[in-house]
Design brief:
Distance between the termini: 53 Å
Structural class: alpha+beta
Bound molecules: zinc ion
Strand content: 15-25%
Order of helices and strands: HEEEEHEHH
Number of strands: 5
Largest sheet: 5 strands, mixed
Shape: globular
Length: about 120
């Protein structure tokens, strides 16, 4: 596992929550396209996190604390909920009560598609 020999950058892990911990705790995963999946299991693999979702996807994500996924999870961003994953309502509410109230999601979507009638 010589990926681990790259070393000193690890110091930063203390400052922010590592991606793995976030996923492990929330059991939710926002994909690159902004679809929120439910997570069955996740596992640390060196600098990667392996995520298995309820809709039978398996993903390897770079476990960087400043990466897109960590940022999204911390900020509770997503555009859509995966229908196959059937994430329970209470979990979504817990994850995103702020988002639903303040509509941060639509703010994000508008930035990606600057199309407002
Ligand atoms: Zn899914």
């Amino acid at each position: 596992m010589n990926l681990l020999d790259r070393g000193p950058k690890k110091v930063y892990y203390r400052k922010q929550i590592p991606l793995f911990r976030l996923v492990e705790k929330m059991k939710l995963w926002p994909s690159r396209r902004g679809i929120l999946h439910g997570v069955i299991a996740c596992e640390e693999k060196g600098f990667y996190v392996r995520v298995m979702t309820h809709c039978d996807r398996e993903m390897f994500i770079r476990a960087s604390k400043n990466g897109r996924a960590s940022r999204w999870l911390r900020n509770k961003w997503f555009f859509k909920v995966c229908e196959e994953c059937r994430i329970p309502e209470w979990k979504l509410e817990k994850y995103s009560s702020t988002l639903f109230k303040r509509r941060w999601g639509s703010f994000l979507i508008n930035r990606e598609e600057p199309r407002k009638p």
